[in-house]
Model the fold of this input.
Amino acid sequence: MLLTEIDHVAIAVHDLDAAIEFYESALGATVEHRERVDRDGVDEAMLKVAESYIQLLTGTRDDSPITKYLEKRGEGLHHVGYRVDDCAEALASMVKAGARPIDTEPRPGSRGSTIAFIHPKGALGTLIELVQE
Ligand code: CO
Done:
């Protein structure tokens, strides 16, 4: 078993501040980490749920993949982040099983993590992020 935890469930939103306010007032959730990742054109907030997170994310520019996603699909579930001990090993295992990598090599993610994305096509219609802390 390469998975150690659900790291986060990511939800794409138009207005990050409004989304945080909704989770805070409706569920009493609190933001543990907020980060703007310019390389990916993403502004994100991580709200802790036990050992996992809800990740609210929005695009920071017109050509950001999140902005394009929001234009095409609207707000909603964007991807699931699975926590693994070794991102490279999990990526290789998924590729061997027939999954299609978006990242062919692990790369830096937010919070100092190492990540790799797997394309929804070939992964049961779900965008998967492998997260090594
Ligand atoms: Co993510």
Observations:
- The chain has one domain: 3-132.
- The domain at 3-132 is CATH 3.10.180.10 (2,3-Dihydroxybiphenyl 1,2-Dioxygenase; domain 1).
- The CA atoms of residues 83 and 120 lie 18 Å apart.
